[in-house]
């Protein structure tokens, strides 16, 4: 295994938390060399989902298993750099790509419904089903063998712990994938889920050879021109209710296609309304067409957008969540803005009337 950095404290920040050890040991029991294992994550996979899958795939291959990626939506091109030759992507095969597997591992998901078109097939699988996740528990977990901890900064942190507990070597490609998971799910180590241990793990991955400047360029400084023109269009819709600390932006149906983009290119746009001074709750409304609107929620302070999103069938983290809601863009926006005002007002003294 790669040499670990010297630790001056009596407490090793890289030691696997005891609460996670039991879950890892249960997972280890089904990771038998020679077995075929499918890895999956949520629809429209993000950096944590992709990074965790890519790292776990490489680690499993080295351990003698035969992993394959089976996602409900295509692998985002923004994270192609974490994919290695050992990563067999069968996402285009749909549910049929799950046939013949010995184990299923679902990463970065707390509810099977977030597997989209794969949900029913996963429910029907009779093989051991592993869940590795850091979200608040959903109503229907994808499997019974669970490693879950909401204190983890990313699912990638839990994959790191599996490697540490089982004595697996984290090589540079795996370290790059894990760093991607941590970097993106903490917003570049800026969000409240950025813990001291998260920084310690990042330092370890840098010691393996990850280049932080290269990672910044790949993740945050390689956007297509169309993303900036789309951002300009979105910011033209910006509305702010300063009395309640709410801000929101919107995009009509067909926007990403018109700018030659993909869904993955929208990542981070909701951070712009959240960045406005005094904003407690930010929303990004994206009309998907066909009577459905995807809403991304972000918050600051004590506002729990996971609890807010669950009112509309969504969920996520306390500071970052989402929901898919039926209705037109105008209908959904009007409904949620009103609900957001009530939600924020219930958590603090009633604001002065708007003028």
Give a summary of the structure in a few sentences.
The chain is an alpha/beta fold and 355 residues long. It has helices at 18-28, 47-62, 119-124, 155-166, 172-185, 196-208, 212-220, 225-235, 255-258, 271-274, 305-310, 329-345; strands spanning 36-40, 66-69, 103-107, 129-133, 145-148, 239-241, 246-251, 281-289, 292-299, 315-316, 320-326.
Evaluate the radius of gyration: 21 Å
- Element-level helix/strand string: HEHEEHEEHHHHHEEHHEEHEEH
The shape, in one word, is globular
Largest pleated sheet:
6 strands, mixed
How would you classify the helix and strand content by structural class? alpha/beta
| Biggest sheet, spatial arrangement of strands | 6-7-8-9-11-10
| Secondary structure tally, helices | 12
Distance between the termini: 63 Å
> Low-confidence spans: pLDDT under 50, at least 5 residues?
5-9, 350-355
Average pLDDT taken over every residue: 92
Strand content: 15-25%
Number of strands: 11
Helix content: 25-40%
